[in-house]
Design brief:
The structure holds two protein chains of two kinds. The longest helix of chain A has 39 residues. Chain A has twelve helices and no strands. Chain A starts with 5 loop residues before the first helix and ends in an 11-residue tail after the last helix. Chain A is an all-alpha fold. An eight-stranded mixed β-sheet of chain B has the order 6-7-8-3-9-10-12-11, sandwiched between helices. In chain B, strand 7, helix 18 and strand 8 form a beta-alpha-beta unit. Classes of the chains: A mainly alpha, B alpha/beta. At the A-B interface, helix 1, helix 2, helix 7, helix 8 and helix 9 of A face helix 4, helix 5, helix 9, helix 11 and helix 12 of B. Bound molecules: iron/sulfur cluster. The site of iron/sulfur cluster (SF4) has 14 residues of chain B, from loops.
Chain lengths: 338, 659
């Protein structure tokens, strides 16, 4: 009766597949719609550089075979899908013979760590601020102070990041400006390394959190105001419940549901923004690797990483979707919720 | 809906036309206008700049290298904002870059909005399979990290100009507006004025443009401004990564060149900072517009912020300045309401919703409080319960249970009295139960707030309560959405008797239920009342139902009680002309209908006339009725009325005054 129903899971799973399909197909199709033949152009450019790469002939041959330049587009598309499906993206062009996939998987933990921490922080702080802003019983003093926390809301993460690098890293010299850890420490599970990693993560995380929490706060404020006007909220007061109980069980508990939906819908944007943050901070995650692969025209790595980011995003959204019915008992009844 | 406080009701006030030319128009929102001004200013800088400054300096690179702005040491007057490492003039670059960034944003967002409006209207209006497909696709598309796809596309497709970039950005600009338009169309098509238009044979396009579009305009505008800044962000992102058009200067490109040339480390602040500042100002401008538009679109947010201000202005505590009417002898009163005044401080004036309401609820009786909607009966109920919502406030009066005046209580003292002594059966129970928690927890909540008992006992007690109102035990672990309207209402009744209160306020407990269920619920209520000996105020607009349930009846009109009498004498010989009108209008006791006897109020509640409030509709109106307000006095045994007709000395009263 409650929780996950087969229908719901199936529907969400279809949307999950659809998202991945749309993302990866866009990557495949758009370049081919553009004037000129991008693939042969790529190979052409590559052969110009080929003198610098060992096994160049082999590489070009394997390339041509892989992308089947002469094959009709639907065959190319099917092959592309086969590769995506098996996570087989071939070798990195700039770091031959490293496999593209291994480069990507090296970058992934950094991004996941950075983004998870930043998202959890900004969402929970933002939701707290917004809930308090939208509650009539919030102490006057707090109510006056809260809007100031929204100061940086409109600023894109990476611009704030640049300012932070300049002020905190260069001018004040308090924290490292770039990278995920210093060269002088040994990577591993030891305290100096962990400390070092954390100190490098502070500025990127702060630049994401301070600029994105305001969005959650504003959304939550509006939701909380709506809940304030609900009959059950009024009844809770009449029941003589403590303000804290009303706030959490009747207010936040209801208002947070649409906020969670917004989080699921906003993940894509968040990940987009973090690519730039990684670029600015030269943080060795997927975003930065994506950038580098494009600069060095490492076509296979670009493909691999873009597909991976799309899949990871879709998976996180899917997981959030699966979580949702446990928080909102109505979800399986209301099919139009999202 | 027990909340009579919704003074701004979206349902009843459809926007007609575009509403821009009146002075109290919601469009005159400070944040929105400030945002517009900021964006216009930036636009002006880009448009007028080329007239005053030689923009060719942005390309030539003929200037000296790395010169700081003119005000810094070493700055040159011919390069007021300095130059960068290629000798290009910063001012000229900024002038050229600014409008191109804005243009991309506008173009992409407008395309996205157009597509979104078409798809969203189809999904919302046609519905069915179309809706399903469009919704699924747009919901999936919205979660794709746009920049990743953009970056990959941009790495193949050399984007030569901003239009190409805008087109590609538009690929990601449509799902948001689609979702919005769809949900708006779904909401609006249920509104009465849209239905009316539909019935009168207006075409779908006509309805869309005449009835719906003006009403969703603020939402659309907010979505557009949000979309523009998202598109500018996307474009800037590509430029910063060096993947945008490289021949035309753009703000992102300047940042890219600055960062790749290590401008940060080299201290060339004037290189990387100005484009960031301009972008920030643009984003702040659009952000202000978006949140301003949100307030315009959502009257509740507006109301929330303004009501907080007014509450502060009006002071929080009501002035309780009332003499005790010496009613100490009446020990049988369970609840006394003395001279209760409730005002709503709306932006358009002070609305007097309850004007000196006086009554006593005797122990063990049911007192019916009746009147048309808007007469203030719900306001009185809310005032008794101490939950008048801002901008409303009890400005004067007392609500007494035993020796305590609830109006003067607050915080913990008030919480202890609530539910223990004074409970509520809300209206219709439509939305009175917390949708996300099971019934068990909602009843337990009320009990545990006042008593500490063990889990087993608690469970037993809740089951007992459900049993009392004739609900099966399994209801305890069900959620509100799994119950029918009648069952929900009975859960509410069970909850109201959980602590065996002295007084229950029942706010139209049977409205919104069908007739059979009404009967069951009314029966349950009566049984409960008989067994517990509780006293009850029953609010309602259904005279027929009241006749069957209540012991005494109190009739309310425009914030005033006009008659209070035992139910038999009120129906047999109503004294007040308004009560007479009400009773005449009941078609038959069997066929019950809501009160709808009149054209409603004939005067403005902000400015009640001197004299009798019913004077404009009364057949018996006399001179004195226009000058002096009749008091609620006992005219017959236990039968009170506020009408001059029953004052034998009324003529001499007037003459006395004139003398
Ligand atoms: S006081 Fe006068 S106007 Fe008012 S109801 Fe009585 S007769 Fe009518």
């Amino acid at each position: 009766m409650r929780g996950l129903t087969k229908e719901y899971v199936l529907q969400r799973f279809l949307m999950y597949l659809l998202t991945i399909w749309m993302g990866t197909t866009l990557i495949f199709v758009i370049p081919r719609l553009a004037p000129g033949d991008p693939v042969s152009e790529m190979v052409g450019r590559l052969s110009l550089d080929a003198g610098y790469i060992e096994n160049a002939d082999k590489l070009i041959a394997s390339w041509k075979a892989r992308f089947g330049l002469d094959a009709p587009i639907h065959i190319q598309y099917l092959r592309y899908w086969g590769n995506v499906f098996r996570l087989n993206f071939g070798y990195s062009l700039s770091h031959f013979p490293t496999e593209a996939w291994s480069m990507v998987s090296k970058a992934l933990p950094w991004s996941l760590g950075l983004l998870t921490v930043a998202t959890v922080l900004s969402f929970s702080i933002g939701v707290t601020i917004g809930s308090l802003m939208g509650w009539r019983r919030t102490p006057r003093l707090l109510q006056m102070f809260l809007p100031s926390t929204l100061t940086f809301t409109a600023i894109p993460y990476f611009m704030f990041g640049i300012m932070l690098i300049y002020l905190v890293a260069f001018e004040l010299d308090w924290l490292p400006a770039t990278g995920a850890y210093s060269r002088r420490v040994d990577p591993g599970w030891n305290l100096p390394f962990i400390k070092n990693v954390l100190s490098h993560a502070i500025l990127p995380v702060v630049s994401i959190v301070l600029t994105s929490m305001g969005g959650w706060a504003l959304g939550m404020r509006g939701l909380m105001i709506s809940v304030n006007n609900e009959d059950y909220f009024l009844l809770a007061q009449v029941k003589g419940l403590s303000p804290a109980r009303i706030f959490f069980r009747y207010g936040v508990r209801n208002a947070i549901l649409p906020a969670l939906t917004a989080l699921a819908l906003g993940l894509g944007g968040l990940i987009s923004g973090s690519i730039l943050v990684e670029f600015i901070f030269a943080y060795p995650g997927t975003g930065y690797t994506l950038y580098q692969s494009i600069i060095s025209q490492d076509y296979t790595v670009t493909q691999a990483i873009a597909n991976l980011i799309i899949m990871v995003t879709a998976t996180s959204v899917f997981l959030l979707d699966l979580l949702y019915p446990f928080i909102d008992p109505r979800i399986t009844y209301k099919r139009n919720m999202r | 809906m027990a909340v009579g406080q919704r003074t701004v009701d979206e349902e009843t006030t459809p926007a007609r036309g575009w509403g821009l030319n009146t002075w109290d128009s919601p469009w005159l929102n400070f944040k929105f206008l400030l945002g517009v001004a900021i964006v216009l200013l930036i636009l002006l800088f880009g448009l007028v700049g080329p007239l005053f400054w030689d923009t060719d300096l942005a390309y030539t690179g003929a200037g000296p290298l790395n010169k700081p702005p003119v005000w810094a040491e070493g700055g040159l007057p011919e390069h007021p904002l300095g130059t960068e490492s290629n000798g290009r003039d910063m001012l000229a670059q900024l002038i050229l870059a600014t409008p191109s960034s804005l243009k991309v944003g506008f173009l992409a967002a407008i395309i996205g909005m157009g597509v979104g409006m078409v798809l969203g209207s189809i999904a919302g209006y046609v519905g069915g399979w179309w809706d399903h497909v469009i919704r699924t696709i747009s919901d999936s598309a919205i979660t794709i990290p746009a920049l990743v796809v953009l970056v990959v596309i941009a790495s193949y497709v050399q984007m030569t100009d901003t239009t190409a970039m805008a087109l590609i950005l538009a690929l990601f600009a449509w799902p948001g507006p689609t979702r919005l338009v769809r949900s708006q169309v779904l909401t609006l098509r249920e509104r009465s004025y849209v239905r009316m238009a539909h019935l009168s044979g207006a075409s779908a396009l006509e309805i869309m443009f005449v009835e719906m579009l003006p009403n969703m305009l603020p939402w659309l505008a907010a979505s557009l401004t949000g979309g523009i800044s998202a598109a500018i962000l996307g474009a800037t992102g590509l430029e910063v990564l060096g993947l945008g058009p490289t021949r035309v200067p753009s703000l992102g490109l300047i940042i890219n060149q600055a960062t790749t040339n290590a401008a940060l480390v080299r201290g060339l602040v004037w290189w990387w900072l100005p484009p960031i500042i301009i972008l920030m100002v643009i984003f702040v401008g659009f952000f202000l517009m978006t949140i301003g538009l949100d307030e315009i679109a959502n009257p509740r947010i507006r109301q929330f912020s303004s009501s907080r201000r007014e509450r502060t202005a009006a002071g929080e505590l009501p002035a309780v300045g009332l003499v005790d009417d010496g009613a100490g002898g009446e020990e049988d009163a369970a609840l006394k309401v003395n001279d209760l005044h409730v005002h709503y401080f709306t932006p358009r004036g002070e609305v007097i919703a309850a004007n000196g309401v006086n009554f006593k609820l005797r122990k063990g009786e049911i007192l019916g409080l009746v009147g048309e909607s808007g007469c203030g009966k719900t306001t009185v109920a809310m005032a008794i319960l101490q939950v008048v919502q801002p901008p409303g406030r009890i400005v004067q009066g007392e609500v007494r249970i035993e020796d305590r005046d609830l109006v003067s209580l607050s915080g913990k003292a008030l919480r202890q009295v609530r539910w223990r002594d004074l409970a509520l059966v809300p209206q219709g129970a439509m939305n009175s139960l917390n949708p996300v928690t099971p019934i068990r927890e909602q009843i337990a909540d009320a009990i545990l707030a006042h008593e500490s008992i063990g889990r087993v006992e608690l469970e037993q007690r809740i089951l007992g309560l459900l049993n009392d109102v004739g609900l099966p035990e399994r209801v305890i672990s069900m959620f509100p959405h799994e119950l029918s309207g009648g069952m929900k209402q009975r859960v509410c009744i069970a909850m109201s008797i959980a602590l065996n209160p002295q007084v229950i306020i029942a706010d139209e407990p049977t409205s919104a239920l069908d007739v059979v269920v009404q009967r069951v619920v009314a029966q349950t209520l009566l049984e409960v009342k008989e067994r517990l000996g509780v006293s009850m105020v029953m609010i309602g607009h259904d005279m027929g139902l009241q006749a069957q349930l209540v012991d005494r009846i109190a009739v309310m009109y425009a914030g005033n009680l006009v008659e209070v009498a035992p139910v038999e004498s009120a129906f047999a010989e109503p004294l007040h002309p308004y009560t007479q009108l009400l009773i005449e209008s009941i078609p038959s006791i069997k066929e019950r209908k809501p009160l709808n006897v009149t054209e409603g109020l004939t005067h403005d509640l902000r400015d009640p006339p001197p004299g009798c409030i019913f004077q404009f509709r009364c057949k018996h109106v006399e001179q004195i009725c226009r000058e002096r307000r009749p008091a609620l006095v006992e005219r017959d045994k236990d039968h009170l009325a506020a009408c001059w007709l029953y004052e034998p000395d009324r003529h001499s009263l007037i003459e006395l005054e004139e003398a």
